[in-house]
Amino acid sequence: MKVILKKDIAKIGLKGEVKEVSGGYARNYLFPKGLADPATKGNLAQLQHLQEIRAKVKEKEEAEARQWVKSLAGKTFNLEVEVGERGQLFESIDATKIAHLLTEEGFSVEKNQVLIEKPIKELGDFQVEIKLTPEIIAKTKIKVSAHSKL
Predict the structure, then answer these.
(1) pLDDT digits (tens, 9 = 90+) for 1-25
(2) Where does 2-60 sit in CATH, by number?
(3) What are the residue ranges of CATH 3.40.5.10 in the chain?
């Protein structure tokens, strides 16, 4: 019996795939648990329509991500922090602070999109990667400098 998977199922397939399974397995396990639907003409047409919509949305997101890559490339963001007498930072700079800085500069970024190996704990220039989509990663620079006391 052909079914359309509604969720990923180990050793069978991924969500949205059409798979051949035994009739008993489909009727007694997959359908009652809401893991699959029968592969009728209507369900297949609906699946095709959803896949087309997802493809258009993904294409649009990737186009926006490529624009972000262009606008972030070569740009340096300045982050002023308080430092002690010897130049040590009073606080470390983590993904949350970098995301906040980029958001203030007009780039809407979540902290889980900022890829840094470890928090920044010193002054200087640092390369930061921003994961826009699973395939597209933008690179930019963060310049950590001492807060000027006027």
Answers:
(1) 999 999 999 999 999 999 999 999 9
(2) 3.40.5.10
(3) 2-60
